[in-house]
Design a protein that fits this description.
Its EC number is 4.4.1.1. The chain has 384 residues and is of the alpha/beta class. The chain has 2 domains: 4-246, Type I PLP-dependent aspartate aminotransferase-like (Major domain) (Aspartate Aminotransferase, domain 2, 3-Layer(aba) Sandwich); 249-383, Aspartate Aminotransferase, domain 1, CATH 3.90.1150.10. The chain has 13 helices and 12 strands. It has helices at residues 4-10, 51-64, 79-90, 107-116, 129-133, 157-166, 179-182, 217-230, 236-246, 249-268, 287-293, 308-317, 359-374, and strands at residues 72-76, 96-100, 120-124, 139-145, 170-174, 192-196, 210-214, 274-277, 300-304, 322-323, 333-336, 349-353. The strands form 2 sheets. The chain has a 7-stranded mixed sheet, with helices on both faces. Helix 3 packs across helix 8 (217-230), helix 10 packs parallel to helix 13 and helix 12 crosses helix 13 (359-374). It starts with a helix and ends in a 10-residue tail after the last helix. The protein binds pyridoxal-5'-phosphate. Pyridoxal-5'-phosphate binds next to helix 3. Pyridoxal-5'-phosphate binds at residues 78-80, 83, 104, 145, 149, 174, 176, 196, 198-199, 208, 210.
């Protein structure tokens, strides 16, 4: 099997044909020429399928499950479209689902909607034995996020897959933070790997994207049918841009992971910074499990500053890191997460996404901004 850089650059790219573009451009079509029986047509109507999605889906399936011919991916216009496609196509009234209590901030909204349709939802924090304890005979679907956003807690995918399967439940992993190069949930036993490709997979901060990957063609078909029937489809331009971004995924995850580790170490050395989390740090509480199941530890570092004002002064004083949400892009971003109100985090909690800038420059910028944030009287922090 080829290395991951080779795989990323070739993923979903067709065999070269004389005088054809190396990667076909986006196909803009609401409908396709359709003689005869639609059941045998590869493309008929734009809500059902498009060659640009097919290429992107082949790329994602190749990354999530290399060399597995039966694996398939289904792309969506956002991570939440992919998430809700799984939850609402696979759960029925009366089913029991287990969701993380500390996962992506919109999961509680999805929970309310599921409960409105008669699904019973339990929650458990990431990585705790509570997650295993919540899986009993009645459970149909277990959803985990590892590492979790924004707390960066880690759970053992293989153990949870075994526990879920022993009780007839499906295990779904949100693989957004790790990317398929960082972690391959399907190989660890998960039934579905779901992600927001908006983040590191696309990596350029210019496209929203979601996907669901599965080894079992029946599961992929159920999710694809949901997409066709609800109409939650991605545009061909977005699909093509995302596919273009995947070519550099290996370069980006390697560089961003190495810089994130250097940044986490620098932050740990500062007295005003507490609770530094990065699964790649040997001292991190999640490191042991992360090291067993991840190849790259991602680009997100989280930490806590003394209070809200301190964090705001720090963010305002950064020169290379913009105050913005989302993560995984080539340009570094950071935000005070409590401003959204959805996560259970301290007021001074910062989620930092490390980009591809030079590590020394980023570390110097973080030090300077921390100095400025601590030095309230100088007024430096307001001089943005
Ligand atoms: C961003 C995110 C989502 C939602 O993805 P969108 O593309 O914003 O809809 C889901 N899960 C995790 C872990 C995320 O970070």
């Amino acid at each position: 099997m080829v290395g991951e850089g080779t795989r990323a650059v070739g993923a979903g790219v067709p065999e070269g044909e004389a005088y054809a573009a190396p990667v076909p451009g986006p196909t803009f079509a609401a409908h396709f020429h359709l003689p005869g029986d639609p059941a045998v047509a590869p493309y008929a109507y734009g809500r059902q399928g498009n060659p640009t999605w097919t290429a992107l889906e082949a790329a994602v399936a190749e990354l999530e499950a290399p060399g597995e011919a039966d694996a398939a991916a289904v792309v969506f216009p956002s991570g939440m479209a992919a998430t809700t496609a799984v939850l609402f196509s696979l759960l029925r009234p009366g089913d029991v689902a287990v969701l993380p209590s500390d996962g992506y901030q919109l999961l509680p909204r999805a929970r309310e909607r599921l409960e409105g349709f008669g699904v019973v939802v339990r929650t458990a924090p990431t990585g705790a034995d509570a997650q295993l304890a919540a899986i009993d005979e009645g459970v149909r679907l277990v959803w985990v996020e590892t590492p979790s956003n924004p707390g960066l807690d880690v759970c053992d995918i293989r153990r949870l897959a075994e526990a879920a399967h022993a009780r007839g439940a499906l295990l779904v992993v949100d693989n957004t933070l790790a990317t398929p190069l960082g972690q391959r949930p399907l190989a660890l036993g998960a039934d579905l790997s779901v992600a927001s490709g908006t983040k590191a997979l696309n990596g350029h901060g210019d496209v929203l994207l979601g996907y669901v990957a599965a080894r079992d063609p029946a599961l992929a078909a159920a999710v694809r049918a949901w997409r066709t029937e609800t109409g939650a489809i991605i545009g061909p331009m977005e699909a093509w841009l995302a596919h273009r971004g995947i070519a550099t995924l290996q370069l980006r995850v390697e560089r961003q992971g190495a810089t994130a580790l250097a940044v986490a170490r620098a932050l740990r050395a500062r007295p005003e910074v507490s609770g530094v989390r990065y699964p790649g740090l040997p001292e991190d509480p999640g490191h042991e499990v992360a090291a067993r199941q991840m190849r790259h530890f991602g680009c997100v570092v989280s930490f806590t500053l003394p209070d809200r004002g301190y964090a705001e002064r720090f963010l305002a004083a950064l020169r290379l890191v913009s105050d913005a949400t989302s993560f995984g892009g080539v340009r570094s971003t950071a935000e005070r997460r409590a401003r959204w109100g959805g996560d259970e985090v301290p007021e001074g909690f910062v989620r930092l996404s490390v980009g591809i800038e030079d590590a020394e420059d980023l570390v110097a910028d973080l030090h300077a901004a921390l100095d400025a944030a601590g030095d309230v009287s100088s007024g430096a922090a307001r001089a943005t």
